[in-house]
């Protein structure tokens, strides 16, 4: 079966897809499947990041049976991922309860019900990625509202991913969309959260990380008028404090069981939380999506010495050396490793680079096919300004703040880069944040 990303690249190639300088020995590495969403099933709790093909297929079958038993074959169960007490006031695109769960192959958020990015490393990829022709003919909004045609949850989800890749999520000039937060909840496979549960975390008062949070929130996206106009510092403080309590509780429990160190609040989480609050219609929605991203997609970013971030930075250097050796050598000759210039971009999934509407569009892509692809998106931004870098005697000044995000161009360049990455390096990228 053809890869969904290969099909997407063929489609995008007709619209001037970016051509990159070939690496010294590109070989014949096949294009990654980016199996980040092939079924909309219920997600198993505490699922490992690497998941086998057999388990994916079994989960798909079980979920389909469960849906049939519940007699809801025509709905994507969007609202079960949204706090029930918010469903009336938040303007959901459907009037039914239930989440559009999913299961990708390259990230933990996928691990439950759609193909998971890390599973992409598996050699057994051919069974995943079936699209629904009926879903292809529907708009994304109609697909979420009416549910998968003929109950084909996996096919509908794959079609939804490709719609996001090719068409994006409709939004206004400020990046606002009534649909986006629900799509994110679905793609992140966010669990059900009642608003009262969120409020109970708020009512616990200051968390152990409260002073660190207050030291960060006042400087979050200070130069972005759109964010400042829509999101208050008080809202950001409440969200981060609630997340800090959840991480604290998990830490206490894990320490009792003598397990690996769980995550905790770290600097940079304030910027990573900002787009969720901007896109969501309530703090509770932003909370559940943000917490899911941290704990399922990139727990390595908030654990210990932020090892996942440092692994990501090393991969930026490695990928750039493969994709553009000349640019890589020039930066290294100036003592410019990714640790110097790319730390904020890795930690925040590029949310540190304005404008915010472009961040949201880039996140649509990352959540659809795996946040691990942010590593390639950072390299894509370097490639896009390679001429300026090579002509600059002091690239440190140029990279002190990346140029304004251009989500569509970054995506096109990223799709070109994917074809150039060896399998073993891509496997490192897909698992670096775990």
Explain this structure.
With 434 residues, the protein is an all-alpha fold. It has 22 helices and no strands. Helix 8 runs antiparallel to helix 10 and helix 13 packs across helix 18. It is globular. 53% of the residues are buried.
Distance between the termini: 29 Å
Q: How would you describe the shape?
A: globular
Mean pLDDT: 76
- Rg measurement, Å: 21 Å
Biggest sheet statistics: none
Number of helices: 22
The SSE string, one letter per element, is HHHHHHHHHHHHHHHHHHHHHH
Question: Would you identify the regions where 5 or more consecutive residues have pLDDT less than 50?
Answer: 1-10, 12-16, 22-55, 67-128
In total, the number of strands is 0
SS class: mainly alpha
Organism: Phialemonium thermophilum
Pfam family, one: RabGAP-TBC
Protein name: Rab-GAP TBC domain-containing protein
InterPro entries: Rab-GAP-TBC_dom (IPR000195), Rab-GAP_TBC_sf (IPR035969)
What is the structure about, briefly put?
With 434 residues, this protein is mostly helical. It has 22 helices and no strands.
Topology readout:
Elements: H1 4-13, H2 53-69, H3 133-136, H4 140-146, H5 153-166, H6 180-187, H7 195-202, H8 210-217, H9 225-230, H10 233-256, H11 269-279, H12 283-297, H13 307-323, H14 325-333, H15 338-341, H16 343-347, H17 356-369, H18 374-384, H19 386-390, H20 395-399, H21 407-418, H22 423-431
Biased composition (Low complexity): 52-88
Protein name: Rab-GAP TBC domain-containing protein
Biased composition (Polar residues): 89-111
